[in-house]
Amino acid sequence: MPPRRVRDYDEDDVRVRPGRRGSRPRTRRRPAHEDAVGGFVTAVDRGRYRVLVEEAEGGTRTVTAMRARELGRKGVVVGDRVALVGDTSGDPDTLARIVRVEPRTSALRRTADDTDPFERVIVANADQLVIVTALADPEPRPRLIDRTLVAAYDAGMDPLLCLTKADLARPDELLAVYAPLGVPYVVTRRGGDLQELRGHLAGRTSVMVGHSGVGKSTLVNALVPDAERAVSQVNAVTGRGRHTSSSAIALELPGGDGWIIDTPGVRSFGLAHVEPERVIEAFDDLARGAAERCPPHCDHLQEGCGLDEWVAEGHAGRARLDSLRRLLSSLEGGEME
Fold first, then answer.
1. Residue 24 falls within a domain, yes or no?
2. Which of 65, 72, 116, 247 could form a disulfide with 111 if both were Cys (CB 3.0 to 4.6 A apart)?
3. Total domain count, the chain
4. What does pTM read for this prediction?
5. How many whole angstroms separate alpha carbon 74 and alpha carbon 210?
6. Which residues, in sequence order, are bridge partners of residue 13?
């Protein structure tokens, strides 16, 4: 049998098969989308985004959009300012793409619980957090109020305490608890005048947060007559309301005098993402004392905290320090409500 010839191969003899992604060189450069149209996200529903786009000649149109692949894992939430490409006509059965999320001025966040490391942005670019709580039916839950206050301070949002159902109980006791914080408040009753509340909402983008059954959706329907938000009754056995709003939605106030963003009722508000330093920053009269008197890594809850001395010298009130510590203790993994 003749010996087998061994051929010498060089690189010209080898055929390189392109991979599935094609042979075009990869690049980190992304399309600039300079012709993208700006919009405001008003609702999110199962991967589809309702975006309000301003018309060139005035007025607005609503565009349905999806999130472009190039955004990666970056989320899009109600309140986001975004850039759209594709079919932005807003005609039925058309779909645009969100290719860019503009920098946020604020982001209201929460976690599932105090041990969950993954935070979730609920709403973006709001400047006021309206904490809605009933004075009765269901009973107020100061723990949940405290937690939402912490979330407002962390997000850099102004808090507003809105007490509903004043026809069933007096607000004095609850207001006394939050008076040292200087949190503005409004008190409403069923069928009552909402002029004071409208004054606080005028010209602002406000998020309404509260546990189920406090009358949040009832307020929204009164403020925006065509909102048609579903309302619920409180369970007579558990004393809790039933979730009726399943997702956040932004609604423009009549006359274009601001926006309110209604959110689903909550029963807990995880704060695993919040650092104690962010909370004390909201207390100007105590933050300076912490910087000057507290030992390193002071959590302001243990003995040896310099704030006790600071208050004793008259630089701040004892009630303010007690309120701060109540808020900080809500970060320590205690009860969620």
1. no
2. 116
3. 3
4. 0.80
5. 27
6. none
